[in-house]
Amino acid sequence: MTLIDTHAHLYLPEFREQWPELLERCRTAGVTEILLPAIDSETHAAVLELEAAHPECRAMMGLHPCSVAANFEEELALVRRYFSERRFCAVGEIGLDFYWDKTFTEQQYSAFHQQIGIALEYGVPIAVHSRNATAEAIEVVRQYPGLRGVFHCFGGTLEEAEALIGLGFYLGIGGVLTFRNSGLDKVVAATGLEQLVLETDAPYLAPVPFRGKRNEPSYLRHVAEKLAEVTGKSLLEVAEVTTRNARALFGLAPE
């Protein structure tokens, strides 16, 4: 059984000294590839170092909406430079976040639109962060026919899920699915597997039975098991479909 973690911040300092052990646990759990969303210029070196040292890790490049500030144009210039020099599996993570602070709302929209432009220019998907802004982010991506991507850590309504699937987007399903009363189980039961990919968002949002602890990609199996339960599919089918989806979306080579 093969699983792909489409969103994990394994390059953050709390993981740095444990990469070999963490990745060995991933292999034991069947997690064969891990995609690394960038946050801002302070994380670029660590993302690229982890990718270079461990080829099962694949880098994205982008500016997180929570890192959008007065200097966001300088940050976007760095993203553009990286894309001019090499290929990444996605522009990410990008989007809108209205949970923490709305000071730079206008700049968040500008950064989102500009990075969508980068994705279209280089023919790669986007990984969208949309905390407290799912409806607004859907309205942005709706403006770009042919745009591909995933709404990472999806926690929206069935109507929002159906809107995204109708646009050809995938839904990133993580530990929230295992949380009691999240409501996400009913959404994915209605949508089925065909537009879903798996993620951990490590170190955040660890699935039950590890909720409240530091998350890691080896825990992805718990998300897959819950997804099998709520969709009435076998664990093997969940693994096969979500892995196939991840390979198709991010242009990952078959094993």
Automatic annotation (TrEMBL):
Keyword Metal-binding: yes
A GO cellular component entry from the record: cytosol
Annotated keywords: Hydrolase, Metal-binding
One Pfam family named in its UniProt record: TatD_DNase
Binding site for a divalent metal cation 2: 129, 152
GO molecular-function term, one example from the UniProt record: metal ion binding
Binding site for a divalent metal cation 1: 7, 9, 93, 201
Keyword Magnesium found: no
Similarity field: Belongs to the metallo-dependent hydrolases superfamily. TatD-type hydrolase family.
Descriptive protein name: TatD family deoxyribonuclease
Species in which this protein is naturally found: Flaviaesturariibacter aridisoli
